[in-house]
Amino acid sequence: MEKGESNQERWCGLKDSSWCQQFKNISNPLMARYVYGFIFLAANLLAWSARDELSSISTLTKLKGLKVCKVEKECLGANGVLRVSMGCFLFFMMMFWSTTRASELNEARDKWHSGWWSIKIVLWILLTIFPFLLPSALIELYGQVAQFGAGVFLLIQLISIISFINWLNEYFASETYAERFKVHVMIFAATSYFICLVGIILMYIWYAPIPSCLLNIFFITWSLVLLQLMTSVSLHPKVNGGLLSPGLMGLYVVFLCWCAIRSEPEGDQCIRKAGTVPETDWLNIISFVIGILAIVFATFSTGIDSKSFQLKKSEKATEENDVPYGYGFFHFVFAVGAMYFAMLLVGWNSHHSMKKWSLDVGWTSAWVRIVNEWLAVCVYCKFIFLS
Mind telling me which residue stretches traverse the membrane in this protein (predicted)? Predict the structure, then answer.
């Protein structure tokens, strides 16, 4: 690219070229983020294979790093997940440190982020293989650190969701759109509350069919209380936030409660849905695939939302040469996302055996979801008071 060429001419040239040519010629950060998403998806699938398939290959136990497994196949499967996760984490952390201060297009860090794909693919493969050469003691240590990193990811995702809900509420409450979409907002808010109540009723029917299911009854009832709390805070005269934002947050809270109860291990009638489903069927497979795709989508959408995490809102207008999103933050989210998918595949416990086609199952997983739900309400209430 010549020095005098404008950024607009650069983008026009990229638009006119083929997708393959864009991939080879770098300098397209909008396309690059999807490539990183595909790399992250490949790491997810590879980690799943390590958990469900690699444990059946007896030759793997001969590797030096896998000889200290305490529980044989169960340990090998969880060990494989953590090793793949560690490789993905190292790759995105390397990208984080090399792109964290990128601010303008055409600079070296922008070109490194948006291109050099052959080198980066080879680098990712090498970093994926490297953890398999390490002793299991280091992998166990990484598993403990990954629990913290996965918690950081959940917090970042939570703030991103609350920021989006708050932005949506302010958008429809603005002078420009308040009158035009007044009826639409009321219908949308009412629908959200209706879905929340239906979800709570169904959880009572499916997961608390008898009075002895005290824990599930507590989880579900407390979610209803939290919904009422968020509504009261939003309608407080000092806040006057309306019903849309607590309705949308209610959907998120009920969803987290449902995920928490679904994460409880099977074994008694309190956690069996009416009309039990066979252990392994196409519904379980579809649920697993959707879960994997949801991890990738959540990581991708959170990664491009760096503006919600700026400590000081910049008053500087966006210029033509500014990068379209924060590269460093994008890669950091994918790095902690690698820890997060590892925890989901091992049930937040590296010594916990998981069934095939299962995702995020175990009492630790259930309590992580519940604590995340309660934290979401606390952050929302504080956020709405400060906004």
Answer: 75-97, 117-138, 145-165, 185-206, 213-231, 243-261, 282-304, 324-348
